[in-house]
Amino acid sequence: MIRTTADGPVRVVTVDRPERRNALRPADLDELAAAVAGADPEATPVVYLRGAGGHFSAGADLDSVATLEAPEAFARRGQRVATAIADAPAVVVAGIDGAARGGGVELALACDVRVATPRATFAEPGVRFGLFGAWGGTVRLPRIVGEGEALDFALSGRAVDAEEARRMGLVSRVVDDPRSVADEIAGNRPDALRAIKERLRDDADDETRERAEAEAFARLHGRYVDDIRETREGGRE
Questions:
Q1: 219 and 179 share a domain?
Q2: What is the pLDDT of residues 36-79, one digit of tens each?
Q3: Residues whose CB is less than 8 angstroms from the CB of residue 60 and which lie 6 or more positions away in sequence, other chains included
Q4: Does residue 192 belong to any structural domain of this protein?
Q5: Distances in Å between the alpha carbon of 144 and those of 63, 79, 120, 193?
Q6: Sheet with 91-96, side-by-side order of all strands
Q7: H or E element at residue 49
Q8: Nearest-angstrom CA–CA distance, 216 and 222
Q9: Are residues 20 and 114 in the same domain?
Q10: Distance between CA atoms of residues 141 and 169, nearest Å
Q11: Does a structural domain hold residue 17?
């Protein structure tokens, strides 16, 4: 169901259930969390999350949802997976092709960077069945696109295409090959990637964040100076 491969500095995590548009069952969620959170940020500083068969993910498998005995626990399970993605030490890039629906949108929202192909579409259709996305979507969506856009998107249940998603801020780029963005990011220093993610994800007060920013910069600067010194000394040998 969840396939993981290492390709140089990028760990590719694929939701592989194309016959169900990569819909996720409860057990699949734990497997997905382990695949993303288990990446070594030094060896594979970037995780590329994608779906198989021309779609990203339809979200929660509706057959599983219809038979839930503990719906609150299921929602909390999905929230833990989204948090594991957001808190992963590696940078997580969502490559969104085809449909992202419901929980698929919510898992993408937890990623650090969301990149769509021109074929991508996004929707939270649960409202039509009397449900809504409960894997952290009501928390992350307004933070990312703003309250007005979030309310319109979630309350209407309508599908938006890739260009509208980019205008909303739901994705940052629309490209033919989202993997190229993961490769671009992976070409940078792992320690700098990790520091930037930590700083941008920090939700402390401004003064605390600025102090941590200065401390992180000082640590990176020390390594930068060491690298220059080693390069110069190596050139004299």
A1: no
A2: 999 899 999 999 999 999 999 999 998 888 887 888 988 999 99
A3: 23, 24, 74, 78, 102, 103, 135
A4: no
A5: 30, 17, 18, 20
A6: 2-7, 10-15, 46-51, 91-96, 113-116, 173-174
A7: strand 46-51
A8: 10
A9: yes
A10: 10
A11: yes
